[in-house]
Specification:
The structure is a homodimer of 285-residue chains.
Chain A (H helix, E strand, L loop, with lengths): L7 E5 L3 H12 L3 E5 L3 H9 L5 E3 L4 H5 L3 E4 L3 H11 L8 E4 L5 H10 L5 E7 L21 E4 L6 H13 L5 E3 L2 H24 L12 H7 L6 H10 L1 H23 L3 H16 L5
Helix pairs in contact in A: 4-5, 7-10
Chain lengths: 285, 285
């Protein structure tokens, strides 16, 4: 292991995901500190032994002693933070993140970053439809997918540290994708699905729906409870990929619709056989 | 209660849902018999104490002693069965069903049925993405929604018996809808969601998807494992309602897509706020 228990880990942004990183890593024996916007967040995290130290200001001491810094911020805030505070970073520090879009931030941050520290992007594919450090839970990572998103500028060393963090937090599959591959894939598996869930709930104002639905509708709309500020930002930052996925989905959906209109039973069944076979490949163990 | 433990209950069609009715009712002390297509199904159900008696032929004795008959068959098979076997039914028997579409069968069956028995349609909003009596489980009904679908021909007595079955099986909300209301609603909450799940899986042939997805994609595609014979039949039998729901969904989805293309952040956020507020109304207790 490149990481050892003497490493100081700083979490910047102590929401659901940042808080879950903090909980998981602190329980493993690391010294975990955090920066957050609100004093209540820090107070809660200290009181509940989620972190060892914390501050609402960019405390040069906290930043300066961190060997690993995990950014769990909105994309635009992340860039601002680097611009304002990178001067405090320890020489040799490894920076990573949990941001849901990559191309639009990874290259910019690597370009602006001091040459004696390294940023390696990552995306833990885990979440909940609730927010804040109060809801953080390191168990959301158990068995979940973890994607490391290196560029040509990254070292094998940094990729390995990222992998170790994922292993320590008990993620399942660990994959490596380029920023472009990541954004295309995330446009499909994450952003498109959120668009669908939001749309479904916008289709009906029937307040009695709750008494009629089965698990299928519940499942398809769980993520319709959505943080509109974060997700509208993520959608815009990945606009081209997401639009492509939305158009592809509409085309495929239209094809099923037209088969139904034409009573093309065999066409519909063929799509159902395909979906059944593909979905069977990834049932959670 | 109108139903008592001396009632003989016959399940016609011993798949996942029929088997789950049988399990739940037999555990409550009812005498439960079943008709199924395959001898292995009957053997399995007898061996596992899911039923008291069973047959692969339309045994006049079994049919003739049933006070309540629950049909868990494909829609077209249901009508055939009534035509062929209603002469064996006990005078005063109450017939009910679990069929996923109503307008296209309820009126026909009530028209063709003997006047000394009564058919009251019902739809338990529960299921699983696996099939067969081997997977049956009465717990899938606990807290699930149950919809009773009477017509003008139904008596209060039959509606009450249906309600009692739902209560005995521990369903949650019990609602009453007309066949037309039911089909419109089911086109939206059940059939449309299955169309979406099937479409999502048809959008990508990436076999590594399993290593990238988060819970959102898993949730939205769980029902993409689908029985193509049953669901293509259900879609066709509810074609007009489902097409209307598919078109409404596409229109709403297109609206979100166009807001993204135009970078209309406020428009997107408004949809997200709506979806969040509406979905919050029906979180499972």
């Amino acid at each position: 292991m490149l990481i050892n228990r003497q490493c100081n880990i700083l979490i910047v942004g102590l929401g659901l995901i940042g808080g879950s990183y903090a909980k998981g890593l602190r329980k493993l024996g690391f010294n975990v500190s955090a920066l957050a916007r609100r004093q209540e967040t820090i107070d809660y995290a200290l009181k509940n032994a989620i972190i060892d130290e914390g501050s609402v200001s960019p405390d040069p001491d906290l930043i300066g002693k961190a060997d690993i810094v995990v950014f769990a911020l909105y994309p635009h805030v992340f860039k601002e933070w680097i611009g304002d505070n990178q001067r405090y970073l320890k020489k040799g520090a490894i920076l990573t993140d949990v941001t849901g879009v990559k191309s639009c931030i990874v290259y910019d941050i690597q370009d602006m970053l001091r040459k004696d520290v390294e940023f390696i992007a990552a995306h833990p594919m885990a979440g909940k439809e609730v927010y804040g450090v109060e809801n953080s839970d390191e168990k959301i990572f158990y068995g979940a997918n973890y994607i490391i998103v290196p560029t040509d500028k990254n070292t094998e060393n940094a990729i390995e540290i990222c992998r170790e963090i994922a292993l320590l937090l008990q993620f399942g599959a660990i994959s490596i994708l380029s920023p472009e591959e990541h954004d295309e894939m995330i446009g499909f598996v994450s952003q498109l699905t959120h668009c669908i869930a939001v749309t479904l709930m916008n289709c009906s104002d029937n307040e009695k729906l709750v008494d009629y639905v089965g698990d299928s509708f519940r499942d398809l709309t769980r993520i319709a409870r959505i943080n509109e500020n974060m997700w509208s930002e993520l959608f815009l930052l990945n606009k081209d990929s997401l639009l492509k996925e939305m158009d592809r989905f509409m085309e495929e959906f239209k094809s099923l619709r037209d088969e139904l209109a034409a009573e093309d039973t065999e066409g519909m069944k063929e799509k159902m056989r395909t979906s059944t076979a593909r979905r069977a490949l990834f049932n959670k163990k």
